[in-house]
Amino acid sequence: MMNRPLCSWIILLLVASGQPLITAKSSELQNILFVYLLARITAFVEELLASTGCGYRALRRRIEGMHWLHTHLFFALAKDLCPKALAGKRIGFIPTALAESKIQERHPDRRPGLCQRLRVMFLYQHLWYHVAVFAVAATVFAVGLVKASNHGTLHYLLTHVLVPGAAWSSHFASLRPIAYAISPPTMPERRELMDRDFARPRPEVKENEDYLQLHLEDESQGHTFEVWRPKPEQKLEKWDAWAILPEIPRSMGLIFWVVVGLGVCQ
Prior knowledge:
Keywords: Membrane, Signal, Transferase, Transmembrane, Transmembrane helix. The chain is mainly alpha-helical and about 270 residues long.
C-alpha cells in the first residue's frame, strides 16, 4: 500500500516536467496503445462480470475506495515503521460495526456546520492530502492539455499527458472524500437499515459463534442467536445524480481509448 501514493506523485512529477513519458517510435507507440486498449476493454468486461454478484455500484465503490483509501493506509504504515518518538500515536484499527463518527456528519439533526466539518476532516482525517492531490493533478492535467493544444498533435497528447498507465482516474478519486466533506449523505442509524431475526445454531457449530455480530439469548425453547440482516430494499442499488456523475468521465475515457485504438488499427 505504501507504493501507491509514491507512484502517484512520481507520475504527476514526470508529467509536470514536460518530458515525454513514452519515447517509442510511431510503430511501437501504436502497439503500446493497442495493447492498452485491450487491457481497458478486458478490465471493463471483468467489472461487468464481477458486478453480477454484488452489484455494479458496490463494486465501483470498492475499487474507487482503494484509490483514495491508500492515503490513510500509507500514514498508518508509516507511523508503525517510524520510531514512536517521531510518529506519535499509532493509528489503530476500528471495525466498521464499532466505528462512531465524532462529528456525526450523517445525522441531519446533529450534523455540524460546513466550516467545523472541514476543520475536523482537515486536521484529523487527512482531508488536506486529498485536496492537495486533486489540486496538483488538476493543475498538471490542465497545463498538459494547453501544451498539447499548442503543439496540435495527438502524438504529443498520448506521450506527455494521456499516457497509458498514468491513471488519472486514481488522482481524481480524491474528489470523493472532498465531496463527502462538503455534502455528506443523510443516513439513518445502522439498525434502522436492518431487520432483526433469530437463528438456532446446529450443535456441531456452537463452538464457532461470532460474538461480534451475534448475541446469545436464553429463550424457553433453548439457545438462539439474535441476527441482524439488511432489509430487502437496502440490497437494491439506487441511481441518482451522485451515482451517475462519476460514470461520465469513465465512459468518456473508455470511448476515447476505443476511438484511438480503432484509429491505430486502421
